[in-house]
């Protein structure tokens, strides 16, 4: 069994012409930091796929600063308009190629974070608060996940 953690970025500034460049707000940075400590205390993620968008990168920076990762990749498949089925196929391939890594984190955006959960755990398509993390137990043999919980920052 593996653990897959799907995380939405922290609170970002309002929509702009260049959506990719929207940074986190002060609150978003605090949310990301709070959840980084929560991850360290509960899961200690080892590998991460992170959207290239600024707000996801800034969220991941908070998590990476506190947790020890042995594999991190910027992944264009987990942008807001990404194809969730394609992204999960890619994640499953990475999991099979890195059998020694048991806890995977994906840092992305609405709506794809909900679609990723749906792909792994059919019938579950949660709405994510900013910096929220969905916890999934994943059986790499059956390629099926079990949605365990949704965890949000207190801020």
TrEMBL record:
GO terms for biological process: regulation of phosphorelay signal transduction system. GO terms for molecular function: protein histidine phosphatase activity. Pfam families: His_Phos_1. GO terms for cellular component: cytoplasm. This is Phosphohistidine phosphatase SixA. It comes from Pseudoalteromonas amylolytica. The lineage of its organism: Bacteria, Pseudomonadati, Pseudomonadota, Gammaproteobacteria, Alteromonadales.
